[in-house]
Design a protein that fits this description.
It is found in: Cell membrane. This is Protein translocase subunit SecF. One of its GO terms (molecular function) is protein-transporting ATPase activity. One of its GO terms (cellular component) is plasma membrane. The structure is a single chain. This protein is α+β, with helices and mostly antiparallel strands. It folds into 2 domains: about 240 residues, Up-down Bundle (Multidrug efflux transporter AcrB transmembrane fold), CATH 1.20.1640; about 70 residues, Beta Polymerase, domain 2 (2-Layer Sandwich), CATH 3.30.460.30. It is about 70% helix and about 10% strand. It is built from 14 helices and 6 strands. It has a 4-stranded antiparallel β-sheet with strand order 3-4-2-5. Helix 8 runs antiparallel to helix 9. The longest helix has about 35 residues. The chain starts with a helix and ends with a helix.
Amino acid sequence: MSEMKNQSSFGGRLYRGEVSIDFVGRRKQWYLVSLALFIISLGAFFFQGMKLGIEFSGGTVLTVTSGQADAANARETVSQLPFIEGLIVQELGTDKVQIRTDSLEPGELTEIQDVLASRYAINVESIDVQSIGPSWGEEITRKGITGLVAFFIIVMIYLAMTFEPKMAFAAFIALFHDVFITVGIYALIGFEVTPATLIGFLTILAYSLYDTVVVFDKVRENTKNITQVARQTYSQAANLAVNQTLIRSINTSIVALLPIASLLFVGAGLLGAGTLKDVALVLFTGMIIGTFSSLFIATPVLAGLKEREPAMIALAKRVNSRGGNEQENTSVSQRQQPKRKKNR
C-alpha cells in the first residue's frame, strides 16, 4: 500500500488532530488580508460607486430587436436627440440592443421610438418600452435594505439562542465582512445593481451562515466541559474544529461554485446572457468570501472573545503549566503505534 494509505487520508488526519493548520493562532495574518480587501472595497464604493439599475434609479428602457442592431450605431442614433440624458447602451445577444435613458416625457418617448424604427426599418410597435419612476425605485431600495437588516437581526437572535451571544457576534462580523467586500468587488467591476443582485446577496449570506454554523457546532462540541478536562485551551479546541470541518467546507464550496462559474463565465461571458451576470457575479464572489470568512474570520474572532473570559484565562494557565496541549502528545503516540506493531 502507498504511504498515503498507511498514513490515512489527509482529511482524516486533520480530523484526528494528527496534522493541523493554525487558523486561530495566525489570526492577525487573516485580519490583515481582510483589512486589505476592506480598503479596496471602500475605495471602489466611494470613488467609483454603485451603478444602480433602472429598478432603483428610475428611467426608460427601450429594447430593439434587429439583425442590424449593435451598441455603436444605436448610441450614435439616439445621442443626436437633444433631450437624451443618462444614456446607457448595451447589446443583448446577437440581435438585440438595449437603450436606457433618464425618464422621458410621452412626446420624447414617441420621438425616440420613431428614430429607432426608421434607423432599423422596423415597426414602432416592435420596440419594447419599459418606464419606471424614481418613486418605485426608492421603494425597492427601501425594501431591500429592510430585508437585509431583518436578516441580520433574525440571525443574531437565532445564534444567540442556539449557541451563545459571542458566537452570534462573531457570525455577525463574518456576515458583515462578506457583504461589505462583495459590494466593493461588485462596485469595482461595475455591474448594474438589480433586484437579482439583492437576491444574490441574501443567498450568499445564507450560504456563509450555513458554513459558519457548521464550524461553530463543531467548536461547541470540542469545547464542551473544556474547563473540567483542561487538555486544551479554547483557541486550540476551536482551531481543531476548523481543521475538522475544513475538507467539508472546501468540497461544499467547490461543488457550489462550479455551476455559478458556468453562469458567469460561459452564460454571461461567452453566450452574452446579460441578464445572468449580475446575480452570477454576486454568488461567485460572495461564496468565495463566505468560505474565507467562516474559516479565517468567524472562529478566530470567537476564540479571541472567549480567551478574555476569566475561566478561559485560568484554563490557559492550567494547560500551559502542564506542558501545553495534550492532544498533540496523544497524536504522537497514535502515529507511533503502527511502528510498534511492525516490530513485533
